[in-house]
Automatic annotation (TrEMBL):
This is Metal-dependent hydrolase. Pfam families: Metal_hydrol (PF10118). It comes from the Bacteria. Keywords: Hydrolase.
Length: 286
């Protein structure tokens, strides 16, 4: 029985874009707001190593996949590789703006080191949970017009580009998980999936909180008022965490699949801007 609920007419399109080369980036680049800017800086710091981990976790289970899933995995890999490249460039601009991020990058590297001797299926479960997080955040970025208001065009284009591709491939890790666990009972599959989402959540938000506060500390912004402002950013306005709660809870429901919520309309809103950047088919077949 197939568990693949990904739309049959979905196209996962790697868009080879480069952003911000040769340009200076303001320290508080998002609405001149240190809270919003450093929160997204802290997110970006995780992406190069994190997305490389996603790629390897998914590729480990591509053998025996259906032609449809195999093609989706290939496009997923291409998208994630380009995301990593662009966030390396973005992070370099964060450094050029005056932040020290080496210690924060080391935290990411050290956490990934812990996965080396772990069964690959658990790494895939981590990837599935984190891909749900990236898809939830991507939805918020595109659905809320105030999220990236007053943002420099090149920066908005980069974050929009990343968001639409995260939505496009949001089912790949999950479908790979379903393929890899096809011989498991439904109860075992749900139990491991649910536990891993809880573990990921327990580590994800405290790590982003600490990294954001560290960047704010480098700006001389410390104390309970700054923590309160960060908490309000996450829970109040724009309420990144608060707005994701329904989608997060849905992950635990029987019959969950990332594409139970088809939000491709958000992609259509911005995708026409990138039509000229679609990779030629010859490159995708290489």
């Amino acid at each position: 029985m197939s568990h693949d609920k990904t739309p049959t007419d979905l196209t996962i399109t790697p868009r080879d874009r480069r952003f911000g080369r040769g340009t200076a980036q303001k320290r508080w680049w998002l609405n001149d707001d240190p809270i919003a800017s450093t929160f997204h800086d802290a997110l970006s710091i995780t992406f190069p190593k994190g997305e490389a981990f996603f790629v390897e976790s998914v590729k480990a289970f591509r053998d025996g996949a259906s032609p449809k899933l195999s093609a989706e995995i290939k496009s997923f890999v291409m998208q994630e590789v380009m995301h990593s490249r662009e966030h390396v460039a973005f992070n370099n601009r964060v450094v050029d703006a005056g932040y020290q991020i080496a210690d924060l990058e080391k935290v990411v590297v050290d956490s990934l080191e812990l996965t080396k001797d772990r069964p690959q299926i658990l790494n895939l479960a981590v990837t599935m949970a984190l891909e749900h997080y990236t898809a939830m955040m991507a939805h918020q970025m595109l659905a809320n017009p105030k999220y990236f208001s007053n943002l420099a065009p090149d920066l908005k284009a980069m974050w929009d580009w990343h968001a639409i591709e995260e939505i496009e491939h949001k089912g790949v890790a999950y479908d790979t998980w379903m393929h890899a666990t096809r011989d498991w009972s439904a109860w075992k599959r749900w139990k491991v999936k649910a536990i891993m989402m809880l573990v990921v959540t327990k580590t994800f938000w405290p790590a982003r909180w600490r990294a954001t506060l560290e960047l704010l500390r480098q700006d001389g912004l410390t104390g309970w008022r700054i923590k309160a402002r960060l908490a309000w950013y996450l829970l109040g306005t724009p309420g990144v965490v608060r707005r994701m709660i329904p989608a997060w809870l849905a992950f635990f429901m029987p019959g969950f699949h990332p594409w139970n919520h088809d939000d491709r309309a958000l992609i259509a809103k911005v995708d026409s801007d990138y039509a000229a950047a679609v990779l030629p088919q010859s490159a995708m077949a290489a």
